[in-house]
Amino acid sequence: MGEGQYRRRLQLKHFFEDRQTGAKRRTWMEVQFQSPGRSPEGWVNDGKIRISLGEDSNVKGAFLLSIDEACRLMKVLELIVAEHEIEKARLWSE
Predict the structure, then answer these.
(1) Mean per-residue pLDDT for 59-70?
(2) How many C-beta atoms lie closer than 10 Å to residue 26's C-beta?
(3) Measuring CA to CA, how many Å separate 59 from each of 5, 36, 69, 91?
(4) Is 84 helix (H, G, I), strand (E, B) or coil?
(5) Measured between alpha carbons, how far is 35 from 6 in angstroms, rounded to an integer?
(6) Dihedrals φ, ψ of 50, to 5°?
(7) Confidence class for position 72, pLDDT limits 50, 70, 90
(8) Less packed terminus of the chain by CB within 10 Å, N or C?
(9) Segment 1-42, tens digit of pLDDT
(10) At a CB cut-off of 8 Å and minimum separation 6, what does 46 contact?
(11) DSSP-derived pairing of the beta strands 48-55 and 44-45
(12) Quick one: how many helices (H) and strands (E) in the chain?
């Protein structure tokens, strides 16, 4: 795979009915990864992660993350899920 190319790693789709029009709609999120590469000077550069958000077939926005930013996002998501599960267990035990 050539440098600069992104590979799709994950695509999440959410289908719903538009409350105003009643039409079936779709939103999606796609995670793509660019591998690390070597610069013309011989330095090894980090890869990147691109998160794209869209509706139906249109891209509505995208985030380009460094590996450090992706690690911070991953840790925050893990904490949110853990807190959610603790609260859910507490509610079930009441």
Answers:
(1) 94
(2) 12
(3) 18, 25, 22, 38
(4) helix
(5) 8
(6) -115, 125
(7) very high
(8) C
(9) 455 799 989 999 999 998 889 889 999 999 999 999 999 999
(10) 36, 66, 67
(11) unpaired
(12) 1, 6
